[in-house]
Design brief:
Shape: globular
Radius of gyration: 16 Å
Number of strands: 9
Structural class: alpha+beta
Helix content: 25-40%
Distance between the termini: 34 Å
Largest sheet: 4 strands, mixed
Strand order of the largest sheet: 4-5-7-6
Strand content: 15-25%
Number of helices: 6
Order of helices and strands: HEHHEEHHEHEEEEE
């Protein structure tokens, strides 16, 4: 069976691969892809914009179930929030492929450690919570954040 990403240009496929299926506009710009090109690929139905600055392979996304879609949206939101952000709740459960029940929530939640300048907010892509977050609770891809 052909890979859905085969419809995409090689450079776009590589950027999607680097973030496990999510293409960030900032990464695209750094790699020399213009926003206009991302818009053209989106208009052509090749990419799907999840939120401002985050895209996925439109064909592959269309084949996902609702929890897999939520997982992609949660990952995109967490990546956009930056390296000091950690998925929590159902977003974390979906990314870690834990069993789920019922429909997914509308928004993912990211927690950021308190540092005095960070604020909590809810936007179109998700919710950011600021809390005391001990280092032993900070994990990236199943490993403590400091072990990268």
């Amino acid at each position: 069976m052909p890979n859905p990403a085969d419809d995409l240009p090689r450079d776009v496929r590589e950027l999607l691969r680097r973030n496990r299926g999510v293409l960030l506009a900032a990464d695209a710009k750094q790699a020399g892809l213009s926003e206009a090109r991302l818009r053209r690929l989106t208009a052509a139905g090749k990419l799907r914009r999840l939120t401002h600055g985050a895209y996925v392979d439109a064909k592959a996304f269309g084949e996902l179930d609702e929890w897999q879609r939520f997982m992609s949206e949660a990952r995109a939101f967490a990546l956009l929030c930056g390296p000091g952000s950690f998925l929590t709740g159902w977003g974390c459960a979906a990314v870690r492929d834990f069993p789920t029940l019922g429909p997914p929530p509308r928004l993912a939640t990211v927690v950021r450690p308190k540092d005095g300048s960070r604020k909590q907010f809810t936007g179109t892509g998700g919710r950011v919570v600021v809390a005391n977050l001990p280092p032993e609770h900070r994990w990236h891809l199943g490993r403590p954040a400091g072990d990268q």
